[in-house]
Design a protein that fits this description.
Blueprint (H helix, E strand, L loop, with lengths): L8 E4 L4 E4 L4 E3 L5 E4 L2 E5 L2 H15 L7 H10 L13 H5 L13 E2 L2 E2 L7 E4 L6 E4 L9
Antiparallel strand pairs: 1-2, 2-3, 3-4, 4-5, 6-7, 8-9
Length: about 140
């Protein structure tokens, strides 16, 4: 499958969605939903959507992934200081959601269940100080 490049990306200002051409990935406004070939495959909370949007911007400019600090700083800039109630299952996240000790994965967990986009569409490379997160547009949902 061909990698997604900038020429495949189209933002429709009138309708407020982003289409990724090649295979049909489509984000809703606010990056709260992701569809593949017209079928909704993932729903995201506001905080998760903000992280997805941030990772998408990195993809769009050709940077392979964002560091955990980049993502936390982005959330701080947006003044997302508290997690949505559905994400408050981890005590550390509740107490200080933007602490450097919080793993980005915690934003994609609820009641000890990891979001299905994690590890499939949202990927991690490296470890420790070299960890980076990115969106994998070469991934194809199993039902397709």
């Amino acid at each position: 499958m061909e990698k997604v490049t900038r020429k495949h990306i189209h933002y429709d200002e009138k309708f407020g969605f982003i289409k990724i051409y090649g295979d049909e990935y489509c984000f809703s406004p606010g990056f709260r939903n992701l569809s593949f070939n017209g079928e909704n495959i993932f729903n995201f909370t506001v905080t998760q959507g903000s992280i997805i949007a941030f990772l998408f911007k990195y993809h769009e400019i050709g940077v392979l992934g964002a560091t955990p600090d980049d993502i936390r700083n982005h959330l701080r800039d947006l003044k997302i200081g508290q997690m949505e109630s559905e994400e408050e299952d981890f005590k550390k996240v509740k107490e200080n959601p933007l602490s450097e000790n919080i793993r980005i994965r915690a934003f994609f967990r609820h009641q000890s269940t990891t979001h299905p986009a994690w590890g499939t569409f949202i990927k991690q490379i490296g470890s420790g100080k070299g960890t980076r997160y990115y969106l994998d547009f070469n991934w194809i949902p199993e039902s397709h």
